[in-house]
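To assess whether ligand presence alters the predicted conformation, the chain was also submitted together with FE3-S4 cluster. Input:
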Amino acid sequence: MFLTDDEKRMRDGAEGDAVAAAMDLLLRYGYALDAERLCAIRNVAGTMTQPSPVKARLVAEGGWDKAFAVINLDSDLDLTIPPMRVPTCQLQHGFGPDSVDIVPYPRANVDLQSDAEAFYGRHGVAILATCTPYQVGNLPVRGEHCAWMESSAVIYANSVLGARTNCEGVASTGAASLTGRIPCWGNHLEENRFGTHQISVSGVHVESFQDWGMLGYFAGSVAGEDRPVIAGDIARPDLTELKHFGAAAATSGGVELYHIPGITPEAPSRQAAFAPGTAVPEAVVYGPAERAAVYQTLNEIGSSADVDFVLLGCPHASLEQIRQTAFLLEGKRLSSGTELWIMAPRALKVVADRSGYTAVIERAGGRVLADSCPAMSRAAPAGTRVFATDSAKQAHYLPAILGIEAWFGTLEECVAAAVTGRWSGGLR
Ligand code: F3S
């Protein structure tokens, strides 16, 4: 692999043992992938502070330096971790101290995480605590090489912003934060960013948040780990709908990059979404039958209409989603046996608090929660058997994680279920 002089210096220990260990990890990673060089980056997003039993044991043995060495650098050396070399942010993790009396989540995890935040903050990590860093100020520019984790954030960065990142892991983001480097392969390379599948929307209106989630779920099932191009009868989506679309495509498949001609930055036209000189692949149609099939899949675990939990904000809610939820709950009360949580980036929760949205939701009996989500923390209201959500991603994962039933529908249907305690949604 080609290395610059600066990279050789880091590899050889000129910037200390921890940076040398980080370079060692990146080189092993790069060789395994046949990367020819490293990309210089200055934007890392990872989940370093997420509590786990292994992390708790390592911290007890040797403090946070030890935990970082083993988990983020794959090293057994006795290292002192220096400040991050490039701007690095923290993504979602477990629930925090302000959720202690609301969410059944172990106090030991909350304390470990608070400790982790202090350590990583001191080392220069911005504790954004959200799976949507792009909603709260981390907006890489088009063409910028990054090292991000979290599938829903990676697909957004690549597709909506035109930045370049693979779906990284805890170790590679840790090493990237200390070196400002990541192996240059996959989505970093121009030739790997063209469309591979064409999906043609026909005979259905893709307009709502729910519609975009179902289309994303379909696109992921068609494209798998490749790159779908979406064309046809679609209204121009807003950023919240693209957030929802991408999360769903990364759930049913492993999509990290898609194009919508005329909307996403690397596809000014349908032809430009595909590699020059190649034929546009035959279109796979997304019509009424396909839409109904996706809806059926996302609702196949639901059998009881008695809903005891409504979960909104996956990926973490935009301010507009919080505002709409407050609008729908104004002057209402949740059913006595039903809870409603909306997950939000902490920075946006502050805005929601100041705007009065949180107060309206709480007066109705709901909660605006930050930092995490039930899937990430494996925590839902005690006794939950049936939940409802407007997120295709949560409808897909949470039944398997918590062993509960799921209903998937519109925001309006979910809020109605919270108020009545009954599911009455259906495909329209
Ligand atoms: Fe975010 Fe949790 Fe969904 S981390 S993308 S709200 S599964």
